[in-house]
């Protein structure tokens, strides 16, 4: 009886420089080929071995027969004529859908990337949370969001990266760290570590681990309330990692890295826009070098949520501005994120849920 041998190709997208060098050594090629491949994938945005002209025809054929360098397929791109926001829908090899979005702001363009298919945290104001959790993304799938978006948008135009898309980066810690290694490597041109931000809903032990990792990237905490009971109601993860624990962890991160923390704060009518919320934020910011990024709430009514999610309403813009001004009057740096991309379902999870 004839044996059917299936050739499973090795995925090279997502391997770090050291890992690529080791791969070539293992396959009988000189280690410097790893550096060349790193350059082709992560700087020249190559999606085919045929593009790699400093590889011999024989080596390209060998690599094509045994390896892959695409982790994602670009399904669709939606552009907002109103704001210039650009949303990407990608498909994984197991036909899962994930999203990235580019948000232009003056001379900056920030790419927001995902780290999981769906999200396990069930934050009550988040469309991704309502989708449930499927799996972690691989390193290649995290990195390919940037590479494919850069091919479409222009590599030199993307100035910032935020790990703030679908999923919780610190629950996919190993892949997040490996992708940071790629993005911040000396060979990777055009990306500065001080323009990369990891956003977390608050996984206290991993915040400390990230502080100790040596990657001097920025940190954003999805805060949304300074009160344990309120935060636990809208962010169930707070029941496992309390706000108190997370505050101690971000203080450690700020000391260790010398960086300023960003507090993400989605404004929810009658829940976190009260006078006592202003006072609590003033007290918190007096203890930690920080700034506040206020986010108007994007409706998730299209997903027919139940429970508290069905009752959430956005704080009116005038009240948001008054809230922000009270903080500024106490010497706190506050930015109000403009609502961008509503016409293209730019909030996390909306486009993937549609598909």
SSE string, helix = H, strand = E?
Answer: EHHHEEEEEEHEHEHEHEHHEHEHEH
Q: Write down the Rg.
A: 21 Å
Strand content: 15-25%
Q: Helical region count?
A: 12
Tell me the CATH topology of the largest domain. TIM Barrel
Helix content: 25-40%
CATH architecture call of the largest domain: Alpha-Beta Barrel
Structural class: alpha/beta
Strand order of the main beta sheet, please? 3-4-5-6-9-10-11-12-13-14
Architecture overview:
By secondary structure, the protein is an alpha/beta fold. It has two domains: 11-68, Orthogonal Bundle (DNA polymerase, domain 1); 73-354, Aldolase class I (TIM Barrel, Alpha-Beta Barrel). 34% of the residues lie in helices and 20% in strands. The protein has helices spanning 17-26, 32-42, 57-66, 127-131, 139-153, 173-183, 204-212, 228-234, 243-257, 275-285, 317-328, 350-354; strands spanning 10-11, 67-68, 73-79, 86-91, 97-105, 108-113, 116-118, 133-136, 160-163, 196-200, 218-222, 261-267, 290-296, 333-336. Helix 1 crosses helix 2 (32-42). The chain is elongated, with a radius of gyration of 21 Å.
